[in-house]
Specification:
This protein is of the alpha+beta class and 431 residues long. It folds into two domains: 7-294, Ribonuclease T2-like (Ribonuclease Rh, Chain A), CATH 3.90.730; 313-430, Trefoil (Trefoil (Acidic Fibroblast Growth Factor, subunit A)). Helix content is 18%, strand content 23%. The chain has helices spanning 74-81, 115-119, 134-144, 152-162, 172-178, 187-207, 211-216, 230-239; strands at 17-18, 56-62, 88-95, 223-228, 247-250, 256-266, 273-277, 292-294, 313-320, 326-327, 333-334, 342-346, 352-356, 359-363, 369-373, 381-384, 389-392, 398-400, 413-414, 422-424, 426-430. The strands form five sheets. The protein has an eight-stranded antiparallel β-sheet, with no helix packed on it. A hairpin with a 5-residue loop joins strand 5 (247-250) and strand 6. The chain is globular, with a radius of gyration of 22 Å. The protein starts with 16 loop residues before the first strand and ends with a strand. The relative contact order is 0.14. Mean pLDDT is 86; it is low at 1-21 and 304-310. Its EC number is 4.6.1.19. Residues 322-426 form the RNase T2-like C-terminal domain. One of its GO terms (cellular component) is extracellular region.
């Protein structure tokens, strides 16, 4: 599958951002005449030189300003929230050309450590001529890539496992094509190199997008009293991103919270040739037209009308919209018997875990909904609290090949995988 109809809607710039540097052991060698990601009209099979389906790279930055407690000094605030004058890194995410995104793509590439990996000799050997040594990169990540639960490394692991494993052009097999054999020891090195490069490129992309300075140039600065319009913030951010439309979001206090920059990619992610493109979605930013706040870090707004309790947990059953029946505990569709009880539990870094008695739910490689997973490979679902619908990877569309009858169960598939005769939404009915 390839995208034919996306090109007219991409407001791509002629300016290509090439972030020079990298690791001399692995210089990517890709044809210079390859199209940008998502702009091909024929299928391109070389997944080491062309990113698909996740060809839209989203660099996300956060403005976390609320401390865990009052009375913290500047040093304590920076340790928890990052530099007081800077947005922090959330992640680098490959969104699909046709909408939505993949997640947790390859369990064999999953990691459970970043600290020891970046401290290892492989990424701190002067002979490697690395753009940034592993220890220095780790130091910068500790300062600029902050978790909302106080455990920064857990966020880094989550970001790589959820998003980094889905980036095809930094898969271990690609390094073997252009690696300098004198600098490579084993296949394990390729896997570690992919992890290092994911964090290195995410850090580099963040450095090129100084959101605080972009806003400051237009008079938008943290304040307890000043407010801004959506137009003012939008115009400022766009001016710093080659006049491309930047997405930003607010929290429940109507305070600026997050900024998303979208890019297309030329060749391998290792080349870091990123082209700004305008935000294509219509997501809810929670920002009003006027009266947007930009609170300084350390401010604790009143809880009245604020965020509400942390870590919501909902219990309920799941119905199939437009048809009879419900989901049972393995994630299949039935019309006879008793619906299973499910729990929606807020995940640590966004979204929800869906849990039945069988275990955590997620999707197989074919898009099949299953509920038999451990928390380590659980999927992260979206939940539309207003409509009650469950989504996954940006899609709220589900489907099945057959209707259930009697004791016969039907498999449930997601989104693109749901090109099935029976299409529906899954509605979570809270108890």
């Amino acid at each position: 599958m390839y995208i034919k109809n996306l090109v007219p809607f991409l407001q791509s710039s002629a300016k290509v951002w090439k972030l020079n540097g990298g690791d001399e052991a692995y210089p990517p060698q890709c044809p210079i005449d390859l199209p940008l990601s998502c702009q091909n009209h024929t299928a391109i099979e070389d997944t080491c030189c062309f990113e698909y389906p996740g060809g839209i790279f989203l660099q996300s930055q956060l403005w976390d300003y609320i401390p865990s407690r009052s009375g913290m000094d500047d040093e304590e605030l920076e340790k928890q929230l990052g530099p007081l004058d800077s947005f922090t890194i959330h992640g680098l995410w490959p969104d699909n050309c046709g909408g939505g995104f993949e997640q947790f793509c390859d369990d064999s590439l999953a990691i459970d450590d970043v600290y020891y990996l970046l401290n290892s000799e492989q990424f701190n050997d002067d002979k490697r001529k690395l753009e940034i040594p592993g220890r220095e990169l780790l130091k910068e990540m500790s300062r600029l890539w902050k978790s909302n639960n106080g455990d920064d490394e857990s966020l880094w692991i989550h970001e790589y496992n959820k998003h980094g494993t889905c980036i095809k052009t930094i898969r271990p097999k690609c390094y073997s094509r252009w690696g300098n054999r004198e600098m490579v020891v084993s296949d394990v090195d390729y896997k570690k190199q992919s992890v290092y490069d994911y964090f290195r490129v995410a850090y580099n992309t963040y450095k090129r997008l100084n959101t605080t300075e972009i806003l400051k140039e237009h008079g938008i600065v943290p304040s307890l009293t000043k407010t801004y319009t959506r137009h003012e913030i939008q115009s400022a951010l766009n001016s710093g991103f080659n006049n491309q439309n930047v997405h930003f979001a607010c929290d429940n206090h109507h305070s600026l919270k997050e900024v998303w920059y979208y890019h297309l990619l030329q060749g391998s992610l290792l080349s870091e040739d990123l082209v700004p493109v305008g935000y294509l979605g219509n997501g809810n930013s929670k920002c009003p037209e006027k009266g947007i706040k930009f609170y300084p870090k350390g401010y604790m707004p009143s809880k009245k009308g604020g965020e509400g309790p942390k870590g919501p947990l909902y219990r309920g059953i799941i119905r199939v919209s437009g048809y009879e029946g419900f989901l049972i505990r393995n994630g299949h569709w039935m019309i006879k018997g008793t619906p299973a009880n499910f729990k929606l539990v807020e995940a640590p870094f966004g979204g929800f875990y869906l849990v039945s008695r069988n275990g955590y739910c997620g999707l197989t490689e074919t898009g099949l909904l299953t509920c038999n997973k451990h928390i380590g490979n659980a999927g992260q679902f979206e939940y539309d609290a207003d409509k009650g619908y469950l989504g996954y990877s940006g899609s709220f569309e589900w489907g099945a090949t057959v209707l259930p009858h009697g004791n016969v169960q039907s498999f449930v598939y997601l989104g693109d995988a749901a090109a099935k005769p029976y299409q529906f939404k899954l509605k979570f009915i809270r108890h």
